[in-house]
Design goal:
- This protein has about 425 residues and is an alpha/beta fold.
- It contains 19 helices and 17 strands.
- The chain has helices spanning about 15-25, 40-50, 60-65, 75-80, 95-105, 125-135, 145-155, 185-190, 210-215, 225-240, 275-285, 295-300, 305-310, 315-330, 345-355, 365-370, 380, 385-405, 415-430; strands at about 5-10, 30-35, 55, 70, 85, 90-95, 115-120, 140-145, 160, 175-180, 200, 220, 265-270, 290, 335, 355-360, 405-410.
- A hairpin with a 2-residue loop joins β5 (about 85) and β6 (about 90-95).
- α5 crosses α10.
- The protein starts with a strand and ends with a helix.
């Protein structure tokens, strides 16, 4: 089972895993969002969780480069990475954003050769847009909030730049506007977009120009078209020739999460990941109740977990655990902290995916074993030691990934992890 995903901060809004699952469905591959606090943490998660490949989004497209083992020419030219290939722990950075942009334009019948284009933003996405259009014979002008950065980008690609304060004045001079910077809808709405101008919003979660473009009779290209094109190119890097599909499916343009999912946050991960401690801290931050399935099992069965294993066996415990989960997901809202084996039953995984926003707290087998090796947990005391536990971790890794909406690094303090998850969840609720 191959594991792919997308890493960023924030990242729960990302539709990339939906595209990966569509493009890679024939191979049974998995894709999950990876929420990292730093570029170094993201590189550690790629290696530690066993991702074969990852797409990279803001703010890590440039800051990840020092933590990679190699850089393809596609990334060197742009000066940013949006795709990582993991070959046995060696991470190589690529950039498929230029291919994605050209794919989006050609899908709309636009030939980039000779296009007069204004690119807003000189970060990773902006530089990729400039690289793609320049390479294809377009005439490019850059505007960035920091004029010095725009000037440097223009020098790199031998194109023009204008002060950001003046971009609205120059719109009549262009055939295409590519926006890669966050703009309030009100600010975008004040732009006098000339009829016939093509507008591409890279920030598909916000779409600041969507309303104004349609009111003014412009040709509007949603950012999902670019997103799909770059993901298609990334999948080819990961899988050789890769799939060849005609355009993104309609579901890519729908909201990522229904509101009901974000009212319940479920933490999954191997024993020793810290789910109970992090869950308590997270519940406090969100002002929600904490629902621990192990506690619910003890209350319903009248026995401690080790006693249930000893007297009734693991299957009896798993059945009671499934009943506890069924009750927990019926709660109006809450933070769920189930046991590490909750994902062993397909019906449990389905219930979690359907009813909660699922966060996989990833820790290495070594870190988890250090935390639990002296405990009385049944699956520690009844097994043959560290090697068996390591194998158990690797067996369950795919099940956690298949269930999760978000993966985070569990090898920090519980307070930092809870705050990190809270920030991601808050962003998802806001969107």
């Amino acid at each position: 089972m191959n594991l792919y995903g997308v890493g960023g901060l924030p990242v729960l809004h990302s539709k990339t895993p939906l595209i990966h699952r569509y493009l890679l469905s024939r191979g049974g591959s998995l894709s999950v969002r990876v929420g990292a606090a730093t570029a170094e943490e993201l590189a550690r998660l790629i290696r530690g969780a066993g991702f074969q490949g990852l797409n990279v989004t803001a703010p890590f497209k440039r800051s990840l480069i020092p933590f990679l083992d190699g850089l393809d020419a596609s990334a060197s030219v742009v000066g940013a990475v949006n795709t990582v290939v993991n070959e046995g722990g060696r991470l190589t950075g690529f950039n498929t954003d230029p291919e994605g942009l050209l794919y989006a334009l050609r899908r709309k019948g636009m030939d980039p050769a000779g296009l007069r284009a204004l690119v807003l933003g000189a970060g990773g996405a902006g530089r990729a847009a400039v690289a793609a259009l320049s390479r294809s014979g377009g005439r490019i002008t850059i505007a960035n909030r920091t004029d010095k950065t725009a000037e440097e980008c223009a020098a790199d690609f031998r194109c023009d730049w204008i002060p950001f304060a003046r971009w609205k004045e120059r719109l009549d001079s262009f055939d295409l506007l590519v926006n890669t910077v966050p703009l309030p809808d009100a600010e975008a709405g004040k732009a006098a977009l000339p009829p016939g101008l093509a507008v591409l919003d890279a920030l598909y979660a916000d779409r600041p120009f969507a309303g104004a473009a349609r009111r003014r009779g412009c040709r509007y290209i949603p950012g999902e078209e670019w997103l799909y094109g770059q993901a298609l190119a990334s999948c080819r890097l990961w899988n050789g020739s890769g799939p060849d599909r005609d355009g993104p499916p309609e579901r890519i343009f729908r909201p990522v999460f229904p509101p009901a999912k974000t009212r319940r946050i479920a933490l999954v991960g191997i024993m020793g990941a810290g789910k109970s401690t992090i869950g308590r801290l997270l519940a406090g931050r969100l002002n929600l109740p904490l629902l621990e399935t192990d506690d619910m099992v003890v209350q319903s069965e009248g026995l401690g977990i080790p006693e249930i294993f000893r007297k009734r066996g693991e299957e009896a415990f798993r059945a009671a655990e499934a009943r506890a989960l069924e009750a927990a997901v019926r709660a109006p809202a809450g933070v769920l902290a189930p046991g590490g084996g909750i994902i062993l039953r397909p019906e449990n995984r389905a219930a979690l995916r359907r009813n909660a926003l699922v966060v996989w707290i990833h820790v290495s087998p070594e870190a988890a074993w250090k935390r639990i090796s002296n405990s009385d947990r049944p699956l520690v005391s009844d097994r043959t030691g560290r090697d068996t536990f390591t194998a158990l971790c690797r067996e369950r890794r795919a099940l956690y990934a298949a269930t999760a909406d978000l993966a985070v690094d569990g090898e920090k303090t519980p307070e930092l992890i809870a705050r990190h998850i809270h920030d991601h969840v808050h962003q998802a609720i806001k969107n």
